[in-house]
Amino acid sequence: MSKMGRTMSWPGIIRLGLVQAALGAIVVLTTSTINRVMVVELGLLAILPGFLVGLHYAIQISRPRMGYGADAGRRCTPWIIGGMAVLALGGVMAALSVALMAQYLVPGIILAVLAFVMIGLGVGASGTTLLTLMAKQVAPARRAGAATLVWVMMIMGFILTATIAGAFLEPFSLLRLIIVTSIVSGLAFGLAVLAIMGLEKTPDHEAMAVADHSQNQSSAQTSFRAALIEIWGEPKARLFTLFVFLSMLAYSAQDLILEPFAGMIFGYSPGQSTQLAGLQHSGVLLGMALVGVAGSFAVIRRWLPTSVFMMAGCVLSALALLGLVMAAMIGSDWPLVPTVFFLGFANGLFAVAAIGTMMALASEGRAEREGTRMGLWGAAQAIAFGLGGFIGTAGVDLMRFFFADPALSYAVVFAAEAFLFLLAAGLALRVKGMMAAKGAGESVSRPSPAMPAKAPSVPLFSMEGS
């Protein structure tokens, strides 16, 4: 897609935000609420939802290939609509599988495996190509603001879905879970289709012919494997990939155990723990807004560039997790709600700053590689989320073999996650130094925007998600 295609208006960018919000609405139910029901209501080992969510991230290893396809000039709209259709169907099947597990465990698990494979394919296809569409059709001057707006709309989708769905899940029953999930999935798919249809711009026939000739020649010269190796050879891209992996590993390790922790240690109901997840996303939104506002003023930007927020967010996330360690040790007397909100706020700080860095780095190096770079970072995030979710849940199960008190098991895992965030802060410092040494002005990523938050449960680039 040529540069002449970079003409997307602000109303068009808002429509992309609606697609992203629809994607997040389905994911937040499948990776948070359904996970909690398996562990608390059905009494299954936490490793089962950990495996399922890890599986859906493992499937997303295909993200770089999808991004490479977009780089080669393929249309993004069919990928986005098709991905959303698969995602919506997978969400409904996930709810059905939980109900089936209550009566027939093995068939229910088999259906859940199929459902989460579909969720992974849907998120990978729609999330990666949506980001690629932004990179290719949004003018460079609008990219930072566009990423901020789209991600904020996604977080708002998380908040609204978690809050409203949480209310409709009371009083809880498996039938109610199926009905609520089906309605959310159907509405989300319909919204995404209406928002994306006719949005993607195509060059005129003559320009398309020239572009196709150029892209075919480029494809003949550079295969997908060669393009990926080429990008991995770029020092900044490689270091940033490692940062994304480690920070997302730290983040995702707490993602799948937070709601079960609230239910088991603090006695929260399914609706209450779902609303707690919504509160965490509210904190994410506040953290993102703070970075966005600070980045709008040149004086603040000079003293507090985005890389500072990236490091600070990792450090504060570690402190918030230590707060959860205290919550596990002290119990109901500890202020859990403010602690979870602060964790979301800290996650928002590092997430938005990391996306700002991503947008600055996506166009560096060889041209027409935006999709492949975003796919690489999305795959790094997906692998980290898969491993983190599995390690976090397996860690809780393993610790319960050593400690009679389940609260102590959660405390040990939260402490390990805090240590990982401190390691990620060290990598963020190296990224900052490399960008400064190479002159990659941080002002490029200034008002910027948007990472995973829960996505992820939602990946930052899901966008899932960013």
Structure description:
This protein is mostly helical. It has a single domain (14-445), classed as Growth Hormone, Chain: A (Up-down Bundle). It is built from 17 helices and no strands. Helix 4 packs antiparallel against helix 5 (105-137), helix 11 (258-266) packs across helix 12 (270-294) and helix 16 runs antiparallel to helix 17 (406-438). The longest helix is centred in the first third of the chain and has 33 residues, at 105-137. The protein starts with 9 loop residues before the first helix and ends in a 28-residue tail after the last helix.
CATH homologous superfamily label: MFS general substrate transporter like domains
CATH architecture: Up-down Bundle
Give the strand content: under 5%
Largest sheet: none
Question: Could you say what the CATH topology is called?
Answer: Growth Hormone, Chain: A
User: Based on helices, strands and strand pairing, what is the structural class?
Assistant: mainly alpha
Shape: globular
CATH class reads Mainly Alpha
The low-confidence runs, each spanning 5 or more residues with pLDDT under 50, are 205-211, 213-221, 440-463
The total strand number stands at: 0
Mean pLDDT: 80
Number of helical stretches of at least 4 residues: 17
Integer-rounded radius of gyration:
21 Å
User: Helix amount, in percent?
Assistant: over 70%
